[in-house]
TrEMBL record, chains A, B:
Stated name of the protein: CSC1/OSCA1-like 7TM region domain-containing protein
Cellular localization per UniProt: Membrane
InterPro entries: Csc1-like, CSC1/OSCA1-like_7TM, CSC1/OSCA1-like_cyt, CSC1/OSCA1-like_N
Keyword Protease among record annotations: no
One Gene Ontology term of the molecular function aspect: calcium-activated cation channel activity
Pfam families named in the record: PHM7_cyt, RSN1_7TM, RSN1_TM
Species name: Microthlaspi erraticum
Amino acid sequence: MATINDIGVAAAINIVTAFAFFIAFAIFRIQPVNDRVYFPKWYIKGLRTSSIQTGGFGSKFINLDFRSYVRFLNWMPEALKMPEPELVDHAGLDSVVYLRIYLLGLKIFFPIACVAFTAMVPVNWTNKGLDGLKHSNISYSDIDKLSLSNIPNGSPRFWVHLCMAYVITFWTCFMLKREYQNIALMRLQFLANDERRPNQFTVLVRNIPTDPHESICELVEHFFKVNHPDHYLTFQAVHDASKLSELVQTRKQMQNLLDYNLNKHTRTLSKRPVIKMGFLGCCGEEVDGIKYYTSMVESLTREIIEEKDKLRTGTKSIVPAAFVSFKSRWGAAVCAQTQQSRDPTEWLTEWAAEPRDIYYDNLALPYVDLKIRRIIVAVAYFFLTFFFMIPIAFVQSLANIEGIEKAFPFLKPLIEVKLLKSIIQGFLPGIALKIFLMFLPRILMQMSKFEGFVSTSSLERRAASRFYMFQFINVFLGSIVTGTAFQQLNKFLNQSANDIPKTIGVSIPMKATFFITYIMVDGWAGVAGEILRLKPLIIYHLKNSFLVRTEKDREEATDPGTIGFNTGEPQIQLYFLLGLVYAAVSPILLPFIIVFFGLAYVVYRHQVINVYNQKYESAGKFWPDVHRRVVTALIVSQLLLMGLLSTKQASKSTPLLLVLPVLTIGFHIHCKGRYQPAFVTYPLQEAMIKDTLERTREPDLNLKAFFRNAYAHPEFRVGENLELEMAVEKPDKLPELVATKRGSWRNTPLPSKHNSPYSP
Amino acid sequence: MATINDIGVAAAINIVTAFAFFIAFAIFRIQPVNDRVYFPKWYIKGLRTSSIQTGGFGSKFINLDFRSYVRFLNWMPEALKMPEPELVDHAGLDSVVYLRIYLLGLKIFFPIACVAFTAMVPVNWTNKGLDGLKHSNISYSDIDKLSLSNIPNGSPRFWVHLCMAYVITFWTCFMLKREYQNIALMRLQFLANDERRPNQFTVLVRNIPTDPHESICELVEHFFKVNHPDHYLTFQAVHDASKLSELVQTRKQMQNLLDYNLNKHTRTLSKRPVIKMGFLGCCGEEVDGIKYYTSMVESLTREIIEEKDKLRTGTKSIVPAAFVSFKSRWGAAVCAQTQQSRDPTEWLTEWAAEPRDIYYDNLALPYVDLKIRRIIVAVAYFFLTFFFMIPIAFVQSLANIEGIEKAFPFLKPLIEVKLLKSIIQGFLPGIALKIFLMFLPRILMQMSKFEGFVSTSSLERRAASRFYMFQFINVFLGSIVTGTAFQQLNKFLNQSANDIPKTIGVSIPMKATFFITYIMVDGWAGVAGEILRLKPLIIYHLKNSFLVRTEKDREEATDPGTIGFNTGEPQIQLYFLLGLVYAAVSPILLPFIIVFFGLAYVVYRHQVINVYNQKYESAGKFWPDVHRRVVTALIVSQLLLMGLLSTKQASKSTPLLLVLPVLTIGFHIHCKGRYQPAFVTYPLQEAMIKDTLERTREPDLNLKAFFRNAYAHPEFRVGENLELEMAVEKPDKLPELVATKRGSWRNTPLPSKHNSPYSP
């Protein structure tokens, strides 16, 4: 087991790493050449069009104002300055609600840590429970002296831990409830103040039955004219645009290659670039690159236009789904929240997500397919989750250095080098896990896509919950159970299923040091790495050198990225779980978690303000998921504490501890009934208020024009300024920045009043 | 353990009892004097006004036509004759769907029994597995030779049982799915063909917030005029009429006493009845009974009228709930299925049940109260269920006659009398349980009332599900575990929680004989007793002698009763559970269950046609509950078989058996998605079709008049012909039968064409 020293070394390494990242960031961010990487949000919003220059040659690329290097950490207070309402305007409610998860972590764990360190640590420290173990083959470290393991069996001191469990439960529930309430209110206010948007009036209809006598368009029109006569306005058919997507994709690649060749030509001037037509461009006939790609792009453009015409006029490509728009929000709210047809598998209606949130590929899936896909994914997920454990188990086993020494005695001299040992123990398990986990979100996202969700937001929510389950089983349980398997495999194999919670409970205090390293590597260094944006930085500069010809290309070369709910939230939830589980067992873990939450809050706030460009706005719809997972973590922590205490011969406490999960479940049911509807339904009263206001303000509004093409397939919209994009040979005539195209809904044409302090 | 002989004696006793009941019924039913007890349904429907007389003196009271005695069982084919669609017209859909539960039992178990007896019984019988147990202290009977216990451990013959489990699962699921589909269709057709009724247009609104500036009536009017401007029609406030109810109740008692005294006076003629005013009418001042009660009735009538006026004019008694009626079914469907206000605890809307189905006392309960009451009831139910086991355990222990002999050796000579032993073993356990269970439904009903449900139908559904859980734990598990506790208590106490399913599984074959007796006593004799209607018969004749003065009084003296979903359905479900559990273990149980289902189907069909008067019509809304419970029973049976086989060292079968519950759960989810919406939601398309039809047929319908007082408190309605009821001194002027008052919705004014065969 790791000693205090090992932890100290690991902490030092991680702190240094994090600090290095911050310094690198501080230097990089004030270089004008990196401006688009570190402040893309402002470009997207149209509030900044070129990097600020301090004058003189070279200042276009590097910052020569040395005073700005001194204030290298001043982005931190800046990130905290923007008030919340303005942040909602600036970045959308989703981002603000997401940041509040970190705040919630601080609000929950800071007071708990204070109580734990004043009340529990002295109680744990002044014992000699662990000394008795010295002769057995279970190793322990000084850190364990701060934990519950240090208290001898059956000691009356366990009452302190019992009280602590109550304090944790009540405080967590209190904070959760307050937060749920706040966020429900924020969401309702946000929706109430929101501008007119197509999705407020639109319902997505799926599983439209086929009729031999009527086309899908006629069917939709008739059905809604009959069944919603006073409210139905218009509808928009959904096309199967997979061929078009393909063409657009190919054209983009060709365009990139063309740009690359053009740039090459501009630089070398004299000779025109030549490409080979054979295998991978290595052999075969030589042709003029610029001419070849120009002709390719042109022919593809023609094909795209033809395909679009075909889609627009023909009815063959129409899938049995449609976006139906209503005259009022009231009408849409009614249609979205009721069942239309006698057959519950037909005419399924739901709120349409925002146009940019729609995942078009899944709209056409029939009811039966969806069910079958769900089963397939469930099975696949099961196997993914449980067979993934094999490599994890192997890596975890390496983390236990004494285990390695026992297994491979010849490695002993190497490992015993003090620094090396600390590094192995501090880094190895965390990093190996991290690499494993890096590829996982993509697989899970593909699974969700296959499962048939129709909006990016729901895809991300689903992927997040799968990722959390995965982390819970493989990182949390896997680390605890497999890790100790090396120490007490024999003991464990001979136990009945009934005793497993107890075994897990017993192992928890022993894994505290592992999780501390994990938090430092995955949390601290990860967050610091996030702000450096190394990957986007490199990609941007590569693209900038080879592909960028216009300002518009440069805009597209920047990938501002998004918060990434499907990867970020499960990570936070793992820390909630660790915090809650260890709060009553080894409170030494809490400061590390608090540092993570604090650091992450500042970093992500900075990123939300300056970098991320959310692809959709769900108005905080994910909060019920967040709430549910924290509650689950709380219940898990109570059960494990129960298991742990019962092995400590403090079984008198079991009935008292059993009360806690029951209360927590009751609390969850209460919250669900009280606050969840705000995230699921849209009250008719609200709809009516907005409708009435609008009717008074704009009595002769042409809504029909407002909906025209609002829900057209994105590829349709991409092509609208195809001719403009074709302007490859006229580099003088720069296409203007189209702020509305990729902007947030709420982009204000005027600069925000708090704007100045943020643009360096 | 009971031997084949014991079972034979018990069966003989039960068959004789059942037969005696049937003969008694055959004799009683053709006596004109009992006509109102055995054919109340026809009186209520107004199709019969006085009993049929065969002529001659005395024929008014007893049937002197001896030919009719010969055909004493001819009610059975008669009961089966009425075709289903007419039965729906005659008795409502609820009754028809209820009868289909018995049919479902026959459809599931008859083919299973055929397969089991041809395939499994020979496999079980031709073994000697039980002979090995002869020397141990576990006793067994010949019946066990037919069961799975007779197969030696680890025998390859268990593959037959495994296949049987698959056959049972697939057949049961197939029948369940077909039935769910049928009943969903029946319900939709029934609702589509249904006449205009207030509840199609009405929504119950609860938790109306209080407003210092507006009364509740104004608030409701304003809210719905604003939020449902095109559809809102009118509303009806709900009054707190508890005082009125009390007065009406007291008046009814006084009226009964007055009637009694009047009758007494008519008979004795000379002297007027005298009553004493003191304690319990035994001492104190003497007054003239008729005068006293007349004055009491009159003063109470005055008070009632005053109270009603006060309620009607005042606003103080209005509770924060209202029945809001809409211009169209579409409007009501929309309002019932959407959320109205931002706060999900206010303005809660749901479909109003039929006026006669409403349980008025609970309408005013606020949201928080409901939650608290739910918790209290959950705790109370927990204690009721688990502490009730103590007396059951005691009674069950008596059922084991060898146990008694061991405990009280001096009783041995008495018990060893062959007949007495058989009687004790055949009757005792069943009857004791039955008496325990008789009082339970009332307690559970009170619990449901306290919990705050607002319609009788939902109260009954809730009470039914609680009763089922109770029976499952106490009758099924309780009998198995506690019963065997006498035999293997030591073995059982020393097992871990993990092995309990195995223990239950092992005990199952041993309890087959107990459950056979239980089925005979509870099922066969119970059903036969149901048709005799002994309690209503006695009460009717008592009332008829002392309290009845007018035909109307006589009408009220008959209690036709209802099907009693909350007691009947859980009983059927217990048989489903027993059938499914024993089908693969001891198929000998199946014939007994099939006889029960067949007999019950005929008897209840007769009762539905001739006796029961349903108090409400929910259009088969309880079917999802029925379906869910059968599926649960199926899963329990699979798990127990798994437990049983794993103790039989046939653990190779476990993975194959584990597939079954997974498949069954998948099946349940599928059915839920596919058919449950038909029982929960009301599709807008259906509503629109009905609205359009109605608008075409009756363009100038005055709906407002239609709703007036539709949802008035029943006491308001009772009092409407109070003056008529006061006509105590004018016995000549009989009040006419008010067929609409207690009739079913669908009472046809014309006699049914299939009518004649049913009136004897």
